[in-house]
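Lab notebook page, bench 4
Experiment: in silico fold of construct C2
Operator: M.H.
Input chain length: 243 residues
Purpose: comparison with the prior construct
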Amino acid sequence: MIPAPGPPAPDSPSPAGLPVRTAVREGAATRQTAPLLARIPELTAWEEENFGPYPFSSTGAIVDPAVDTGYALETQTRPFFPVGTFDTATLVHELAHQWYGDSVSPKSWRDMWLNEGFATYAEWLYDEDFGDKPAGESFQEAFEDDAAWEFPPAEPPGPEVLSETPVYRRGAMVLHQVREAVGDEAFFRLLKGWPADHRGGNASTEDFTRYAERTTGKDLSAVWEVWLYGDERPEEPDGADGS
């Protein structure tokens, strides 16, 4: 592996001074990867605004077209990308895992939605801030996806389905319903408080639901019953097409 050509240099900092370290295998499509690699400081700073202080001592990425995994991986401080997966949405998703998944890890495989639901919601927030697409529109698309309703995100039938749609898209729907229930101010405090309070540890779905209710002061049992544990798609909620 060699350092990525052009900006960012291996140790170029984020706006907050966080070292950014990137690498691309020699011979990779550098014209394709360099512009997005150069956005890592900016994207990390944006995620800090939403999720709180970055939980590690450096950020970055590794891009390798010679390894055909078919998916990116949220390796700590430097997510790994086969070159075909290296796009803005996936980079936003894997960087969000530094907070949700790498700093706070699931207590068991059944809690994987805590990783993937948060990282998917990070994509929705990015589209809301930069793509003129309210998170409610992303919610609506997920709501209409039949695959999202194959099983409840907090009760996957087995570890073999941990990469399936309910864990990702319905997990994000859970978070959007929390946002709708508590309002933006409390919701964004929750996004920052959860990884800060559980930094360096493991957490379960039950830990999260208790934390969310305690910190927002809201009874969210209806959200958990329908969106987190419910077996069937409910009636479309009011405000699903808004943010």
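Observations: The chain has two domains: 2-96, 106-228. The beta strands are 2-3, 12-13, 19-24, 59-63, 80-81, 104-106, 201-203.
Next step: discuss at group meeting.
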